[in-house]
Write a structure and sequence with these properties.
Elements (H helix, E strand, L loop, with lengths): L1 H17 L12 E6 L2 E6 L32 E3 L1 H12 L4 E5 L3 H6 L5 E3 L8 H10 L3 E2 L5 E2 L5 E5 L7 H12 L6 E4 L2 H7 L9
Parallel strand pairs: 3-9, 4-5, 4-8, 8-9
Antiparallel strand pairs: 1-2, 6-7
């Protein structure tokens, strides 16, 4: 009986995986699970090989915006989608890190990368709010006003896309405050590249 149950589970797992084998993430990965607001979310790519993106993230031209450098700072690691997925599994799922969406709250509510928390980039200019953010990140103020970063979380930041400067500016501001470079990651592709590659997104109503 146990053998039959094991075989049935194996068949179900294989059938489930087969649904996402047309457009895979890597040759070995069809999907992963991450937690978003307390619920497990399956992250995969859209299986429709004719799918196209529309709307804001399909635009090429951005008034007053220019392509961001792949290396925003000598000490900051720039990452792409595979590294983001690994970060979700190894850091976010285990509560050792945060994936931070720096876009405005209104657009985050409409759609975001699963497991991401929203911290609008503009809070960097609000002393009270940024102190609250630093506490969320695990930083504390020393008596002399310097930043105690002994127990800070690993943070991966993203914003709108390859042309968006919010992430680079936010990371630079944190560096200036004393947040350690080795604890921050820069997802340069941002939400636009996530959409272009057909990855799962979530609403945050």
């Amino acid at each position: 009986m146990k053998i039959i149950i094991i075989l049935l589970l194996a068949l179900l797992t294989f059938a489930e995986a087969g649904k996402y084998n047309k457009v895979k993430i890597t040759p070995d990965i069809a999907y992963i699970y991450v937690y978003h607001k307390g619920k497990a979310v399956k992250v995969h790519r859209i299986q429709d090989t004719k799918n196209k993106i529309y709307g804001e993230y399909a635009k090429i031209y951005r008034p007053g915006k220019f392509i961001q450098a792949i290396k925003m700072h000598d000490d900051i690691q720039t990452i792409a989608e595979i590294e983001i997925l690994t970060f979700m599994q190894e850091k976010v799922n285990k509560k050792k890190g945060l994936l931070v969406d720096l876009r405005p709250k209104e657009v985050y509510k409409q759609e975001s990368i699963p497991s991401a928390v929203n911290i609008p980039a503009r809070v960097i200019d609000n002393k009270i709010k940024i102190e609250k953010v630093l506490k969320i990140f695990g930083a504390k103020r020393n008596p002399d006003g310097t930043l105690n970063t002994k127990n800070v979380l690993d943070i991966a930041f993203y914003c709108n896309g390859l042309w968006c400067d919010k992430s680079a500016d936010f990371i630079q501001s944190l560096l200036d405050m004393g947040y350690p470079a080795e604890k921050m990651l820069y997802y340069r592709g941002g939400f636009q590249m996530w959409k272009i590659l057909g990855f799962t997104t979530v609403e945050n109503k």
